[in-house]
Amino acid sequence: MPKDLIKPGPYEVGYLEMRVDLDSSIILLNEDFRTVTVAVWYPDVKKSRNLIKKEVPARFPVIVLCPGAEAGLDVYMILTGYLSSYGFIVATFPSSADQYTYGREIYLWEFRQLQQEYLKIAATRAGNMNIADPDRMAVMGHSYGGPAAILFALSDEKVDAVVSLDGTDICRGYTAKMAEQFPAYNPANLRDPFLLILADASYCIGEKRSLDFFEGITGTDACIVELFKFGHEHFGYTPSFNADPEVKQSFEIACLYLLNFFKAHLYGDVAANDWLLKSPEELGLPKELFALKRKMNE
Fold it and tell me: Beta 194-198 vs 12-21: how paired, if at all?
């Protein structure tokens, strides 16, 4: 097996769940979803031992994760725990998807609206924790959660960075549908640094696949990390239990880019920003597993 590329951070990780009712004024397609469970992973300073010598922050940045279709609370626990161990509060919620739309197409505007309501709740509840800094916030989404994360960033001024984990923002038809339903969903409007981690996109291939949204970003720095040996589902169902060492390494590469991206844009970490600007060769990472594409906002 290849040497592990990632190691847990200095913080022990705490976990909590909160059940929250949506405001009664919000109209829902399916009333069964008026209550949402928000899961939060956080740096547990009181239980941590042998912390790094530099001063522990009084408040930690918040990352909100919008899940892919039908994902439960525990699906991303390796990724969320990893980020939390490095000083981030990470909040997510279970996906509603076609259960909310009674099995109909989840392109529906009503499903997208519910995603936004859940994102707002998760951001608010995590941001209200006494160890949280709500003024330093990022949002990321997997699969159907990718465009939802982007839309949230476009509508919330508190967001400082946005990530799409193989999101459906790379699908030509889906991007067009989002723009039709939400006029603000325009790459030219994005002002927060953007990271797209691209896997095999098995749900969106051939002529359906497009980087039009990424190419349309003009007002901020943007980067694609394309993983060649990594499946769409691996972001959630962690490859740590997968026998394929290339899948495991690919997951670790994704974790490294996420960690440095969030450290650079939520902590203002100069070393992390410098790391992001280096080539795979300079970083000593296996270039046969991934490629980079950057767009710098001058």
Answer: unpaired
